[in-house]
Design goal:
The protein has about 170 residues and is mainly alpha-helical. The protein is built from six helices and two strands; from the N terminus they run αααββααα. Helix 1 crosses helix 2 and helix 1 packs across helix 3.
């Protein structure tokens, strides 16, 4: 690719994450983009998402599979070194370097997604985030520091019994 945009790399990793077991639908890809960016409620504009998705499809990194989308084997090879032990910023930097070093031709079929479909996917993602259902792509919240075990509260907690108190001392009068 000649120029690698931030949105391209984010969208490629989000598609890869969302299509682990089956082809990813647009709301799942949108959830992945929001997760990768790390800021809840901030998404790239619909025009940027549409252009990035089209670029990735033309370069042969994403293809349509029925109602969903899957990354191609080339995209999976580019993202293979992006292990889960790294932060998202480190993963994105590694994918960006490999994507810039790879010479991809503009010879694949274009996948055009209309703005209305992107808007519907963003609305569906936001509705599911506000609803009672769980979004599996959103990270679990961290426990507060107050709940972490300290030396004074060691032995308290679920599954740990406290010691039986010693009997009171009798006075010798």
């Amino acid at each position: 690719m000649q120029s690698v945009y931030d949105v391209d790399v984010i969208l490629l990793l989000a598609t890869l994450m969302a299509s682990k077991r089956r082809p990813a639908e647009l709301p799942e890809i949108v959830a992945g983009v929001e997760l990768i960016q790390g800021l809840q409620g901030t998404l790239p504009s619909v025009a940027k998402l549409r252009a990035a998705f089209s670029r990735l499809a033309r370069h042969g990194l994403i293809k349509a599979d029925g109602e969903g989308f899957v990354p191609t084997s080339t995209a999976q090879e580019l993202c293979a070194a992006a292990t889960r032990k790294r932060t998202y910023a480190e993963r994105l930097a590694g994918i960006r370097e490999r994507l810039a070093a790879t010479d991809l031709a503009d010879r694949h079929a274009d996948v055009e997604i209309e703005d209305a479909l992107w808007n519907a996917a963003i609305a569906a993602h936001r509705a599911s985030a506000e609803g009672a259902g769980r979004n599996e792509l959103v990270p679990k919240p961290k426990a507060d520091d107050a709940r972490k075990r300290t030396g004074s509260s060691f032995g308290k907690g679920p599954g740990l019994r406290q010691r039986k108190p010693l009997p009171t001392r009798r006075r010798k009068d």
